[in-house]
């Protein structure tokens, strides 16, 4: 990665736009193949694309907002600084994971997020910017996404309430729908 490339340059080159949950985003793939209504169990029984993928960029001003999607999800590291992810598990516990380039330091270049898991992420390292991807299956549709605030989740996950409250909330931003590549 060129040391002098900036977050704004990467956003412009990839056509990333502000997003409600994940910093700046561009939808890069939605399968043309669909699972027909009734072909999957609830909550996907209304039908879905087989899969979807997107680019996302985090900056100090645009971390991942606390949210969950119904679908299984895999984060991928591409460029920039690492991120620290917080996953709130169904059993009331939390797990933190580093996603980034330094395998010797214990970073992962992929992070699996089970469907229905509330999660957030923030920059680590030098904290300039992170470029990653997310692949989802089945493909995500808008009703699969649920945004939540820290206080609601702190009440729901009291054993990790302090951890939840310590995570940054993104600044208010203009949000647009991701566009397909």
Task: Tell me what the structure shows.
The chain contains 3 helices and 13 strands; from the N terminus they run H-E-E-E-E-E-E-E-E-E-E-E-E-E-H-H. The protein is mainly beta. The chain has a 6-stranded antiparallel β-sheet with strand order 1-2-5-12-7-10, covered by helices on one side. Strand 8 and strand 9 (94-99) form a beta hairpin. It is globular. The relative contact order is 0.25. Residues 170-181 have low confidence and may be disordered.
List the helices and strands and how they pair.
Layout: H1 7-14, E1 17-18, E2 24-30, E3 34-35, E4 48-49, E5 52-58, E6 64-69, E7 72-80, E8 83-88, E9 94-99, E10 110-113, E11 118-123, E12 130-137, E13 145-147, H2 150-156, H3 161-166
Antiparallel strand pairs: 1-2, 2-5, 3-4, 5-12, 6-11, 6-13, 7-10, 7-12, 8-9, 8-11
Highlighted features:
181 residues; mainly beta; five-stranded antiparallel β-sheet; 3 helices; disordered C terminus
Sketch the topology as an H/E string, one letter per element: HEEEEEEEEEEEEEHH
**Helical run tally:** 3
Principal-axes shape call = globular
Number of E strands:
13
For the termini, the CA-CA separation is 22 Å
Percent strand equals 35-45%
Which whole number gives the mean pLDDT? 89
Largest sheet, described in full?
Answer: 6 strands, antiparallel
Our Rg estimate from Cα atoms comes to: 16 Å
Structural class: mainly beta
**Largest sheet: spatial strand order:** 1-2-5-12-7-10
Q: Report the uncertain regions.
A: 170-181
Helical percent range?
10-25%
């Amino acid at each position: 990665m060129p040391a002098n490339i900036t977050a704004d340059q990467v956003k412009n080159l990839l056509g990333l736009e502000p997003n409600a949950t994940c910093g700046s985003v561009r939808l890069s793939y939605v399968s043309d193949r669909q699972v027909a209504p009734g072909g999957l169990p609830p909550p996907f029984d209304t039908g879905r694309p087989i899969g979807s993928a997107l680019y996302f960029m985090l900056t100090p001003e645009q971390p991942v907002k606390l949210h969950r999607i119904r679908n299984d999800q895999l984060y991928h590291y591409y460029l920039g600084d690492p991120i620290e992810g917080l996953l709130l598990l169904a059993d009331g516990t939390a797990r933190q994971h580093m996603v980034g380039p330094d395998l010797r330091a214990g970073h992962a270049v992929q992070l699996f997020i089970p469907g229905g898991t509330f999660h957030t992420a923030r920059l680590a390292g030098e904290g300039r910017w992170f470029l990653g991807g997310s692949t989802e299956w089945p493909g995500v549709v808008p009703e699969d996404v649920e945004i939540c605030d820290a206080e609601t989740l702190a009440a729901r996950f009291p054993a990790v309430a302090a951890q939840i409250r310590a995570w940054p909330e993104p600044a208010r931003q203009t949000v647009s729908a991701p566009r397909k590549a």
